[in-house]
Amino acid sequence: MKTDVVKQEDVQVARRESRDEIMPNTAVRQDKDGFLLVAELPGVDDQSLQVTVEDGVLLIEADNAVASPEGHTLTLREISPVTYKASFELPDRVEAAGVKASLKNGLLRVRLPISEAKKPQRIAIAAE
Asked: Distances in Å between the alpha carbon of 9 and those of 22, 33, 46, 89?
């Protein structure tokens, strides 16, 4: 039985139409209500981002936007067009239906709540 969010290291990294696939930097922390996963996705907007949960696996896929401003010619580019891809095995106690994601300033935050039924319960003791 899994008890933590585990990053899958075997994600295929490939080259596609001069776009590298890379794994984003991530951090996961846990509190009493669940897990918070934060991924660095610079240059990504919500239109090119997909976050899915299926069969106990969280999958993140996104393309960064590398475009020249209108009316300008690109003379130097050190930011490469990339596809970010990462997957995480989720513990059984994560409630997939309650997963929420938000993107702001290149940081993706995914809230992974623990099912109420799987949270530790305090048992009242009756004195006799």
From this structure: 11, 26, 25, 11
Q: What is the 3-state secondary structure (H, E, C) of 5-21?
A: CEECCCCCCCEECCEEE
Q: Confirm whether 110 is domain-assigned.
A: yes
Residue 109 CA, distance from chain mean position: 7
46-95 confidence digits (pLDDT tens)? 999 999 999 999 999 999 977 777 888 777 777 788 999 999 999 999 99
Classify residue 34: in a domain, yes or no.
yes
CATH number at residue 27: 2.60.40.790
The CA radius of gyration of the chain, in Å to the nearest whole number, is: 19
Domain membership flag for residue 19: yes
